[in-house]
Each structure stands twice: as C-alpha cells, then as structure tokens.
Write a structure and sequence with these properties.
GO terms for molecular function: S-adenosylmethionine-dependent methyltransferase activity. By secondary structure, this protein is of the alpha/beta class. The chain is built from eight helices and seven strands.
Length: 243
C-alpha cells in the first residue's frame, strides 16, 4: 500500500481517514498506542493524546520510526496495549480473523481496537471485481464486508462501539474529477450510508466479570418420619443396656 498511498486516490483516502481518525482517537486514552500498517499511518495518529506510539510494518518504514512485524504475530506482551489501529490490514491477510485474535491478546481489558477496511458493496468493490486479476493494491486484496467484521469481532470477544461508512466517491485517479464529485459525500451519508467505499470500526475488548456465588446453607434433612423425635445419646445408651 505504500506506493499506492502516494497516488492522487491514495492521498485522498488518507486525508479522509485522517479526518475520521482525528475525531475518534482524541477520545481514547491510555499509555501505549500501536498502529499496524505502513508509515503513512503515522500522520493519522497525531490526534491521539497517547504519547507513546509504536508503528509496526512488514517492511522497514523509510520516513518514520517503526518496527517490522507480522500482524498475526506481534512482538508485544499480552494485555499491554491501550489502543490498537489496524489501517487496511485485514484485506491482505490470509487469515484475517487471526489478526483480530492477536489484537485481542495484546489489548488490555477494556482496550480499544480501531480498524478500517474497504467495502465490497460500493464503487470500490465494483472496481475490484473489474480488476480481480490485477496484482496491484488495493484491488488485489480481499474486501471484507462490515457485517463479517462485526461477526468476527463479536465472536472473538469485542463489543462494537461505532461503525460507519465513508468515501462515497468512485475510486478515480483524477484529482479534478474527484473534486467535482465531492457532493457525493454529503449525499451518500444521508441517502445511502451503507454504500461508502471504506468503513471505520471502533470496538472495545470485553471483560466478563466473575460473579461470586453465595453458598446456600440448608438445614440437615432428617431421615425420620415427621413428628418423631430423634434419639439422643442417653436414650441410645439405655437401649443398648436393655438389649
């Protein structure tokens, strides 16, 4: 995605995602933020109040500090990250649900996961169908629907806090045409919100509290019929002498 983000369409998408992340990240607090993506993701993290930020990439970033790592095998301790950002990662993974599972592992209880993805039911999805034999990104990726992402997150132990689509313009590499089609953004949010080319999801790692069970004390049940007195130690002694 590094080279594609340098194209007019890639820059337009980064700007749109940066604006949305700029509205989400300021409300997420903690000590450690991890972004999995490429160096272009670093600019979108500037809005976060978390000072310690780690960028993880498959290849060494050229312009910003970062570490090399695989998204499904992060070199991080369990329950150590407050906020994790996955920016167009799942589309290019063979086992995207394992990436979510790894995010669940490294997040602290109540930690937040923020992810973006391409919507297959949009102009972008149509373009991918027309370019399905292409090996260029992002059309070579597997576009996953928002409903599928919801299901995976819920199944693996997340609670969805917000999810919405954006970028309703068709994916054109023409800056002037993209500017003229800007009216589709307002119309799309109002009239066809589920057809945006990209979605952004914020989810919280659920923690199921343990509810202590109070012991139920019951009186000892008698084996004698009702109305009969239980024998005492003295009566049992006398009965033994007479026998």
């Amino acid at each position: 995605m590094r080279g594609w983000y340098a194209t007019p369409l890639g820059r337009a998408l980064l700007q749109a995602e940066g604006e949305l992340l700029g509205g989400v990240l300021p409300g997420l607090f903690g000590y450690h933020l991890v972004a999995v993506g490429c160096e272009h993701s670093a600019a979108a993290l500037a809005a976060s109040p978390i000072r310690h930020r780690i960028l993880l990439c498959r290849v060494p970033p050229a312009t910003v500090p970062g570490l090399c790592a695989e998204p499904d095998a992060l070199p991080l301790a369990s329950a150590s990250v407050d906020v994790m950002v996955l920016q167009h990662i799942l589309e290019f993974e063979r086992r995207p649900h394992e990436v979510i599972r790894e995010a669940l592992r490294v997040l602290i209880p109540e930690g937040r996961l923020v992810l973006t993805g391409f919507n297959p039911w949009s102009f972008w999805g149509l373009r991918r169908l027309l370019s399905r034999r292409s090996e260029t990104v992002p059309w070579s990726g597997q576009f996953l629907s928002l409903n599928r992402i919801r299901d995976w997150l819920t199944l693996l132990g997340f609670e969805i806090e917000s999810a919405h689509h954006f970028f309703f313009r068709p994916p054109l590499q023409h800056r002037g045409m993209m500017a003229r089609l800007g009216f589709l953004e307002g119309g799309g949010r109002r009239w066809w919100p589920a057809l945006g080319g990209v979605y952004l999801v914020t989810a919280r790692k659920r923690v199921i509290p343990l509810t202590p069970i109070k012991p139920r004390w019951r009186p000892r049940r008698s084996v004698l019929p009702a109305g009969l007195a239980e024998p005492t130690a003295r009566s049992l002694h006398r009965r033994g002498q007479n026998g």
